[in-house]
Amino acid sequence: MTVKNLPVSLSLFSPSLVCLSLCAALLVSDPVMAQETSGDNSAENDAQSLQQLLDRVRAGRVKDSADFAAREAEFRKNRDRQNALLKKVQADILREERRSERLEKAFNENEVKLAELEGLLNERLGVFGELFGTVRQVAGETRGQIEDSLISGELRDRAAPLDELAKSKGLPAIAQLEILWFTLQQEMTAQAETKRFSGEVVNLDGSVRMTEILRVGPFTALTDDGFVRYAGNHRFADLGRQPPARFGDVADDLLDANDGEDFVVAPVDPSRGALLNLLLQMPTLTERIGQGGLVGYIIILLGLGGIGIAVERIVRLSGIARKVKAQLASGQADGDTPLARVWLVYQNSGAKDVEALELKLDDAILKEIPPLERNLSLLKLLAGVAPLLGLLGTVTGMILTFQAITLFGTGDPKLMAGGISQALITTVLGLVVAIPLLLLHAAAATRSREIVQILEEQATGMIAAFSEKK
């Protein structure tokens, strides 16, 4: 409300009346101003006198009282509704608390009853609890054995029922016990069979082929290409390389055998593949020789050369000794032999005394000794050099081993295996070459000394006969 258009005569009233009028105007200023804001702001709503101002103040006061009464009535109505909702919620809470007490009481009673029933169950079960525990344990162990058994390459889908029985928490059913018994009986029966069946074999390149497989119990599996191993998931796999020929020959005999024939020798791996894997990891003779390195190849070359020399000497000396003995038996000095040449010297000597004859015969024997002992010293030298070369390879291998230790430490033994292999293989090669060469040298030297001894005996006899004639 504005009072800017009040008449000038206002100033003629008493100050107390003016103050009273202003206070009344201030008391009703808010509702009156709100009314003015919602309506238009025309100049017609302005009070023209104090009486109009008083009337308007009185009208605004009546209206405010009515608004206050309406608001109070609305508040009380809302309060009653909220009180009703509060009482309802409190009643619901009380009802749920009573229900919770009833459920808690029932739960406690059920706990006590469950404990009593469990005790009664354990009492009635008795030893059956341990029995069923043993059944589950046997089922689990049998499942693991069946999964790794190559019999599963032929007999499929046997592990799932056993796995269910092994993981069950309750009592096993009769059907489950029958499945366990049947599976054990089936496995035992198959272990005593040698059977042919068609199965999947994984090639070395990853492809799969269907072929006929010969199973020897749970131990060995064979195909036309050789041994195979069980790779799981009802499949077999080719080996990276086959075992030595002695096992392959036996396997071929077994593959060629017909049902109902006599017993044949068959390769059996009682470890179910472990021994076969170890056998495949063993290096072949060529691989072992290669582990010796350059020194190993030198030792082998020297050994082959020494064996060739020894064989030549033994064969030649044996032939000469045989001819000489034949001449001794016949008493005839014919042919190109040391004894014939010594006899020829005696016959053509023309010596006048024993000393001259003895010198001529000694000279003839000395001429025969070098051809008889040819290359024997070289053979002996090779027999002595071979172990020295083996020792050289041993030292070289140990040097390589210590270098590997210096560079990589001792954490991985495979890094040192190369040097150790060279050290051991060269030592073995040196001994393997030296021992036969020594034996062959002894045999050749014996043949040579035998022939020289015969010549010396004959020369002594001829000297004695010449001396008797004189």
Would you kindly provide a written description of the structure presented here, covering whatever features stand out?
- The chain has four domains: 8-93; 126-192; 193-282, no CATH class; 291-469.
- The protein contains 14 helices and five strands.
- The protein has helices spanning 15-27, 29-38, 50-125, 128-148, 159-167, 174-191, 245-256, 274-281, 285-291, 293-330, 338-347, 354-372, 376-408, 414-469, and strands spanning 194-202, 208-216, 220-223, 226-232, 235-238.
Q: Secondary-structure element order, as H and E?
A: HHHHHHEEEEEHHHHHHHH
Count every beta strand, where a strand is a DSSP E run of 2 or more residues.
5
Strand residues, percent: 5-15%
Total separate domains? 4
Secondary structure layout:
Layout: H1 15-27, H2 29-38, H3 50-125, H4 128-148, H5 159-167, H6 174-191, E1 194-202, E2 208-216, E3 220-223, E4 226-232, E5 235-238, H7 245-256, H8 274-281, H9 285-291, H10 293-330, H11 338-347, H12 354-372, H13 376-408, H14 414-469
Parallel strand pairs: 1-5
Antiparallel strand pairs: 1-2, 2-3, 3-4, 4-5
Helix pairs in contact: 1-3, 4-5, 4-6, 10-13, 10-14, 11-12, 11-14, 12-14, 13-14
